[in-house]
Write a structure and sequence with these properties.
- The protein is an alpha+beta fold and about 450 residues long.
- The chain is built from 12 helices and 21 strands.
- The two termini are about 45 Å apart.
Length: about 450
Amino acid sequence: MPVNTLSALDQSEYGKRRRRLLKMVGRKSAVLVPATTEIIRNNDNPYPFRQSSDFLYLTGLNEPDALLVLCPKRAEGEIILFVHPNDPERARWDGPRAGLEGARRVFGADQAFALEELDDVLPELLVGYERITLPFCDHELVQSALGWLDILRKKSRGGINPPQTLKDLAEPLHELRLIKSPVEIAKMRRAASISAQAHRTAAAAIAEGMYEYELAADLQRIFHQHHGEASFAPIVACGANACVLHYRANEARLESGQLVLIDAGAEIEHYAGDITRVWPVDGRFTKPQRAVYELVLKAQMAAIDEIRPGARFDAPHEAAVRVIQQGLIELGLIPQTVDGAPNSEGYKRFFMHRTGHWLGLDVHDVGRYKIDGQWREFEPGMVVTVEPGIYIDAAEDIPKAYRGIGVRIEDDVLVTPKGADILTHEVPKTVEDIEAFMNDCKARHRLDA
């Protein structure tokens, strides 16, 4: 595993994040932030390593098992890293690690210790603090912290004051991560652009007789060409497979007359893109397909129009629901009530999920959606997906022309001081643009044949 190197800008960015977190937790709290442990896939073969987003956000260190300790106002230094030493023999197999020197020189630690010293050194770092802030979801770390506190309590007769409470790290850190800095926004723009390139490449290859997994391979190739990877397992779903929201098999054969739903995004420099588009295998939508697609697109545009500072998080969803309700009535898929009002629940058979989620280091990024039971307001620097959909099953009570049509349209949207900035605008989205794009690709394929 090669040693990480960071630019001066990156070092400054991580330092700002740590200082902001320390201000949020207060000077009486020590903070523990663990790295991810390498996970074995089978026998002694590990999964590709993906660092904990929380640890990565505060350090930039992409190595397993490390621990960041923040000790506000500590005379010997506030930033302490516990890491694997750089073992030359181990480096022959896995590559060099940052080691103690790299933890200080590259990653900004005031002090660095070997992980083997953790139980001896860490309890002493906690002395004098009233509480420990750490991730409650990491049960092993919580148990270790209780053990370290027990060690300190046994020494309390000597005048040592151990922390008395534990506090969950998620609330302050995840709120911090929710608002993206200019550096993060630049990274997310790049992830969005590469995600868009991958979608265009896969769409250009669509042809009757190929398989879903071949399109998934086209997506992955573009991600890897840009030193990235998939931010989640790509969904490539033709025909009725698109009505399975988290379809993963990617093994069906594309047939004439079908739509192909592609939901995929690149993770570039650990920041995620997330785009969904729908493409007709033949290059043109049928009349029923077009009617459903344009209804979803209308709902998506109505939702995006609601994104601005001060608007509540549920406003885009409510806008999309209003459009979809009325559209489903007009298509004859749900009934209208006697008094003429839209059916308030009937749409859920065809649109059963919410319209978006936070996006960032995680594809389903962190941060609360409600505060004190109320939907929170959008703020500049938030990034959210907007992804309404309609999924029509093949039941007998559905008009035959609409059976098995699944459509979802998704973009990544940055909240700006003036409104919304669609980061993923580089993929065709209107019916006219999609058909023109695909027919142009098919014409080029005929010339090359």
